[in-house]
């Protein structure tokens, strides 16, 4: 498929292959999608985000998480550069762990319309308590291999 075809078929002009400014907030970030060349096949895509950061909305202190995003593509794939920019937009964003995790899952699902999506937010402890947040759309397609996310319960992750 030609680059122009991908750009035309995508929802907006892609950020891939050109310099773009870092978004200052999640609502400013553009998530790009590209056509799924294997849309007749059920398969799983996994994005691992081991260095996610956001800010505590109360104290302004940094919060850190290991995010695992799994999805079974429908008509669209999530373009990874746009995901990196979107994830980076949370660095100065104040929100609770639960809000960040679910917000990311819902935004991706609304943009790419996957057959299935799940996100695991494995948050590092502050105040001695780690918080893990999980969200998913629908059910796993029958017969789809969905491996465990592989992030152990907190015991000094790292």
UniProtKB/TrEMBL annotation:
InterPro entries: GTP-CH-I_C/QueF, NADPH_dep_7-cyano-7-deazaG_red, QueF, QueF_type1. Gene3D superfamilies: 3.30.1130.10. Coiled coil: none annotated. It catalyses: 7-aminomethyl-7-carbaguanine + 2 NADP(+) = 7-cyano-7-carbaguanine + 2 NADPH + 3 H(+). Substrate binds at residues 78-80, 97-98. Keywords: Cytoplasm, NADP, Oxidoreductase, Queuosine biosynthesis. Its main location: cytoplasm. The active site is at residues 56, 63. The keyword Secreted does not apply. It is an enzyme of class 1 (oxidoreductase). It comes from the Bacteria. It is found in: Cytoplasm. Pathway: tRNA modification; tRNA-queuosine biosynthesis. The keyword NADP applies. GO terms for molecular function: preQ1 synthase activity. Its EC number is 1.7.1.13. Belongs to the GTP cyclohydrolase I family. QueF type 1 subfamily. HAMAP family: QueF_type1. Catalyzes the NADPH-dependent reduction of 7-cyano-7-deazaguanine (preQ0) to 7-aminomethyl-7-deazaguanine (preQ1). This is NADPH-dependent 7-cyano-7-deazaguanine reductase.
């Amino acid at each position: 498929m030609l680059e122009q075809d991908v750009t035309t078929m995508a929802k907006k002009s892609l950020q891939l292959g050109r310099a773009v400014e870092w978004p200052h907030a999640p609502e400013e970030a553009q998530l790009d999608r590209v056509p799924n060349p294997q849309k007749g096949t059920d398969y799983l895509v996994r994005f691992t985000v081991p260095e996610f950061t956001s800010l505590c909305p109360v104290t302004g202190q940094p919060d850190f998480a290991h995010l695992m995003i799994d999805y079974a593509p429908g008509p669209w794939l999530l373009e990874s550069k746009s995901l990196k920019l979107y994830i980076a937009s949370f660095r100065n964003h104040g929100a609770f762990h639960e809000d960040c995790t679910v917000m990311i899952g819902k935004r991706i699902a609304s943009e790419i319309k996957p057959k299935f999506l799940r996100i695991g937010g494995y948050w590092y402890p502050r105040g001695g308590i780690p918080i893990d947040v999980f969200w998913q759309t629908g059910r796993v397609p029958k017969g789809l291999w969905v491996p465990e996310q592989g992030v152990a319960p907190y015991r000094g992750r790292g």
